[in-house]
Amino acid sequence: MVDPAVDLVAVDWSPFRPASFMLPLLNDLEGWRTQLNEIAMQAKHGSTDWFIHHADATFIADFPGMFLENFLNEDLSKTNITLLAGSAILYDPQAKKNITLEVNKPTRVGIGTHIVYVTSDAPACYMYLYSNTTETMLNSQLSQLEFQIEDQQLDESVLEKEAENNETLKTLLELKREKELQKKLKKEKSDVETSFWKSSHQKALETYTLLHKCFKMGYFAAVSLVTGESMEYLLDQQK
Q1: What phi-psi label fits residue 200: left (phi over 0), alpha (psi between -120 and 50 degrees) or beta?
Q2: Residue 119 in 3-state DSSP?
Q3: CB within 8 Å of 64: residues ≥ 6 apart
């Protein structure tokens, strides 16, 4: 990684010595990636927030003195940041205040722009635990709608007419059709793969049977030449 604070046009460098503007790999933090899923699951189980239970996690590692400027739109209003190692400060430009992040303590991040500064002498790492509230809410409403349609509590043809004046219902029906299409395509793909393997297995079996018969006939032909016995006699002896 190139140090973003260095002017690459003006920097003094030579192909015969190590580049001073190259930052080292953060190999010592690589182990955190394997622990990320476990940490995220613990955060979900330890929270009573319904949205956190449907959250995803993103791992970030950065160098001392560096910062990450990030923007969250309204769909990501349920976002937490948790410091895993090192020291860092969360700056909220809207509130114009700094928040010192504490290790293993989740901190809510508001929508809009925020900046995370690494203040420790060693590299720091942290994770975002976030949930797309709009997507999560729509999926919940879609599940409820599908259940009511399957349970014949709602008539889909009637819903189609109502959706003309209801954007939310229109979106849900579009998601339902898209979900059904994906399910159909997945089934067709599975059927094609199953058919392919069945066909391949059948061809392999036919090839094996043919080769086995050829080797068998070749063997008895050789025995017949050596012993003087007829092929018919040798084959009858094998029955």
Answers
A1: alpha
A2: coil
A3: 118, 119, 120, 121, 122, 123, 124
Tokens encoding 77: 């209003």
pLDDT in tens, 8-67: 888 888 888 888 777 767 766 767 766 766 766 665 565 555 555 667 788 888 888 889
pLDDT per residue as tens digits for the range 108-154: 898 889 999 999 988 898 988 887 766 666 666 667 766 666 666 66
Please answer whether residues 83 and 122 qualify as being in contact, where contact means their C-beta atoms are separated by less than 8 angstroms: no
The side-by-side arrangement of strands in the sheet containing 88-92 is: 67-72, 112-118, 88-92, 97-100
How far is Cα 135 from Cα 75, in angstroms, rounded to an integer? 8
Provide the token pair at 70: 């990030």
CB 81 within 8 A of CB 134: no
Closest CA to 62 of 130, 9, 5: 5
- The Cα–Cα gap between 184 and 65 comes to 51
Residue 133 exposed, middle or buried by CB count within 10 Å (0-12, 13-18, 19+):
middle
**Which residue is it, tokens 């503007």?**
21
Query: Counting Cβ atoms within 10 Å, is residue 59 exposed (0-12), middle (13-18) or buried (19+)?
Result: middle
CA 133 to chain CA centroid, nearest Å: 19
